[in-house]
Amino acid sequence: MSRNESRAIGMSTARVDGPRKVTGTAPYAYEHRVADPAYLVPATATIARGRVRAVDTVAALAVPGVLEVLTPFDAPRLTAEAEGEYVVLQSPDVAYRGQMVAAVIAETPEVARQACDLLTIDYDQQPHDVGFRHDHPSMYAPVKANGGYPADSERGEVDAAVAAADVLVDEWYSTPEEHNNPLEPHTVVALWEHDELTLYDSTQHPHGVVEALAPVLGIDPSKIRVICPYIGGGFGSKGAPHAHDVLAAMAARALPGRAVKFAVSRQDMFGYVGYRAPTASHVRIAADRNGTITGLIHEAYTQSSHVSEFVEQAAVSSRNLYRVPNLRSTHRVVALDVPAPFWMRAPGEAPGMYAGEVAMDELAEACGIDPIELRIRNEPDVDPESGKPWSSRKLVECLREGARRFGWDAHDRTPGLRRHGRWLIGTGVAVATYPHMVNPGSEATIRHEGAGRFAVQIGAADLGTGAWTALTLIAADALGCGVDDVRVEIGDSALPTATVAGGSSGTSSWGTAIVAAAVEFRKRFGDAPEAGAEVSAAAGENRELEHFRAQSYGAHFAEVRVDSDTGEIRVPRMLGIFSVGRVINPRTARSQFIGGMCFGISMALFEESIRDGRFGHVVNHDLAEYHVPTHADIGNVDAGWLDEEDLRATPTGSRGVGEIGTVGSAAAVVNALWHATGVRVRDLPVRLEDVSGALP
Questions:
Q1: How many Å separate Cα 505 from the centre of its chain?
Q2: Residue 438 dihedral angles phi and psi, to the nearest 5°
Q3: With 141 labelled, which of 15, 466, 549, 652 sits at a CA distance of 20 to 30 A?
Q4: Integer Cα distance of 565 and 562 in angstroms
Q5: Class assignment of domain 3-28+439-541?
Q6: Residue 6 confidence (pLDDT)
Q7: How far apart are CA 47 and CA 104, in angstroms?
Q8: Are the C-beta atoms of 423 and 545 separated by less than 8 Å?
Q9: What is the mean pLDDT of residues 464-484?
Q10: pLDDT digits over 402-460, tens only?
Q11: What is the pTM of this model?
Q12: Whole-number Å distance between alpha carbons of 200 and 261
């Protein structure tokens, strides 16, 4: 097949890894077969702040099958490069409830768990503070927010615009602490052979694990290999190694020649592997009577940790979404005696745009303008933040196409009037935006295996999102061959360097490297390469993005029904229309969009980690009490996208799809709830008592 005849990108293609997954032959991290494995179970702190005074290991060591017990007083030493959460068992200091303070390694996981329960740990407990609030006396202004964004940004005469407003929305919004709960928990298998370490790790970034752990363990990066072909979800939490990876490597080092398996328990998934920090947003939107925004202030407050700083970038999305001449956005953070927050799907944008898009709905109500029309009236011609033109911005088209397909009624916006039997019915809308990210540094190798078949190697990671398939399509398109003629190899740090599967950047970053390698391959070997012909190439800098602002966009439409007798809330249908450039694989992209929208329904109605201020732990630390939606909770959720390509963004014309389905979706649900009941919920998740007082 000639290159001009290839049309791999855009074909709805079944997952190339599907047969291996459904037959159970795809090995996840914990399932990798190793000879004579040992098993690790950690003991976690039962105080929120203080020191371990002593650990009595006598009873644990007496259990048959116990191989080793590690404590802060005798664990293998790490280097001075270890910082933050990577300082594992190096000190008796306790920074938060749930911190790993000892570990048992045994012949079986059952023995390790039994012996761990027999450890007696004596603490010197100190006063702690785990209570987040926006007026905390220790609140401070950070230099940067997550993603490297400046913490504060301002343009124009903000205070004057707010003071002169015809219409002003001035409200507080909040989102709770939430935890990533992928089906596969964090797992790792560690094996030292002489001075070389192999980790079978459930990670979104094999090369990132190498880069992070090599200096901590005091070995050359070439001495670590991380293998991770399959992942059972991560939602950001597996974007970097956590303390459990360090502990597994330490334990395996204490047992030379034996592999150590460590599966983080579901309860400990609420401890030391990251979470979305709670946020509070004070949003003020000033406008004239026609709904034209004249000023906007978004002050975001969030929780961090004494372990390491993490600032949820909740105010960043307000900086360039609408045409706002006068704008101030700030971030403030308080460090508490809690674990370090980390990435959770659409960090910053998800909680920040919940606040911003509910506030926009309130502005539409105050101005008496349809909320879709309000957003269109404030559409910017260029990026308000940089002044650059857009590489492609089709938010208005998303709104109009979504309204057409959803059946939006712009004339029926009086709340609490629509009913079907005992159900109150409302519809809501919110928009989404997510930055286009292409991380530099990915490389790809292409080798001709003969008979027109190619091997493509890159150390990428497939979270379950479809990277195996998407990269196969990109390679086939770039090489001008059939999809069945490409064999992709990913999930191994021994392969060419790849950047993280995070920030919706994976396919864009890795695909750019594969295209670069394909171009170089064809340049060197033409259309008739010999078997064994091989080329490696790295993705170069995209100079187009120096002159254009690239973002993805979407519009969410939700219908909410509320039982007038019980207050039960249902979302029978939801639609998202997205502008993400060229869609590589419609089948898996649609799955990503729908999954993100389900995330938004869950954020709006279910998810909340409840941290007990007295003791410092998350009370509902399991899937019985930490509520996520089941099949019965999700109705007709559908997603579509505009037919387009953005060649300024990537050589394939695509932008990321992984997180934009989440952004704004919770706001659409809450805005629909207002339309159904007249109740404006500003603090997530929605509770029964929020609507019960408004029921007829």
A1: 11
A2: -125, 110
A3: 549
A4: 9
A5: alpha beta
A6: 58
A7: 20
A8: no
A9: 97
A10: 999 999 999 989 999 999 999 999 999 999 999 999 999 999 999 999 999 999 999 99
A11: 0.97
A12: 9
**Are 341 and 236 contacting, i.e. CB atoms less than 8 angstroms apart?**
no
- The answer to whether 652 and 584 are in contact (CB under 8 A) is yes
Place of tokens 């990269």: 471
Tell me the three state secondary structure of residue 19.
helix
Q: Is the pLDDT of residue 256 over 60?
A: yes
CA nearest 696: which of 559, 561, 563, 560?
563
Q: What is the CATH number of domain 149-166+169-177+276-437+547-692?
A: 3.30.365.10
Residue 3 has pLDDT above 50, yes or no: no
Instruction: Kindly write down the DSSP assignment for every residue of 498-536, as one continuous string.
Output: ---S-TT-HHHHHHHHHHHHHHHHHHHHTTSPPTT-EEE
Q: What is the pLDDT of residue 400?
A: 98
Other residues' Cβ atoms within 10 Å of the Cβ of residue 450: 12
Q: What is the distance between the alpha carbons of residues 177 and 341, in angstroms, rounded to a whole number?
A: 9
Structure tokens at 389: 């033109």
Q: Which two tokens stand for residue 84?
A: 């933050």
Return the SS3 of 406.
Answer: helix
540 falls in which pLDDT band (50, 70, 90)? confident
If we measure between CA atoms, which residue out of 520, 517, 518, 527 comes closest to residue 452?
A: 527
Structure tokens at 645: 């390509």
Alpha carbon distance 660, 664 (integer Å): 8
- What angle, rounded to 10 degrees, do the helices at 349-367 and 665-677 form? 30
Two tokens, residue 355: 């606040």
**Residue 156: DSSP 8-state:** S
| Total length of the chain | 696
Residue extent(s) of CATH 3.30.365.10 domains in the chain:
3-28+439-541, 32-127+182-265, 149-166+169-177+276-437+547-692
Beta-carbon neighbour count of residue 524 at 10 Å?
11
559 is catalytic: no
Q: Which CATH architecture describes the domain 32-127+182-265?
A: 2-Layer Sandwich (3.30)
Q: pLDDT tens digits, residue range 626-655?
A: 999 999 999 999 999 999 999 999 999 999
Q: Which residues of 157-182 are buried (b: 16+ CB within 10 A; e: fewer)?
A: ebeebbeebebbbeeebbbbbbbbbb
> CB neighbours of 603 closer than 8 A, spacing ≥ 6?
175, 178, 350, 354, 662, 665, 666, 684, 685
* Amino acid found at 121: I
Residue 282, beta-bridge partner list:
172, 299
Q: What are phi and psi of 334, to 5 degrees?
A: -125, 130
For β-strands 260-263 and 38-44, DSSP reports them as parallel
**Which one-letter amino acid corresponds to residue 402?**
G
Q: What is the mean pLDDT of residues 299-325?
A: 98
For 260-322, give the secondary structure using H, E and C. EEEECCCCHHHCCCCCECCEEEEEEEEECCCCCEEEEEEEEEEEEECCCCCCCCCCHHHHCCC
